[in-house]
Amino acid sequence: MLTGKQKRFLRSKAHHIHPIFQVGKGGVNSNLVKQVDEALEARELIKVSVLQNCEDDKDTVASQLSSGSKAELVQVIGSTIVLYKESVNQKRIQLP
């Protein structure tokens, strides 16, 4: 689990990155979860955008993605989800 200080640090890091996935009409499926997990391994911190035509609400999508990829949910702001998972091979972010 992340502390409040760590979440603040990750939110400030995530501010400048753009969403690399969009969840639309199809919702969350196993293929999307696999791709998110691979992206987290490469980058550690990613943003996911939830489109307006998505049938699930953003909080449901956030919990499905974070539990499916075993990542920490940093923040849900607007229609954007910020996820963090410590990389095994390519550690870049040092948490405070």
From TrEMBL:
InterPro entries: RNA-binding_CRM (IPR001890), RNA-binding_domain (IPR051925), RNA-binding_YhbY (IPR017924), YhbY-like_sf (IPR035920). Keywords: RNA-binding. It comes from the Bacteria. Residues 1-96 form the CRM domain. SUPFAM superfamilies: YhbY-like. It holds the Pfam family CRS1_YhbY. This is Ribosome assembly RNA-binding protein YhbY. It comes from Fictibacillus nanhaiensis.
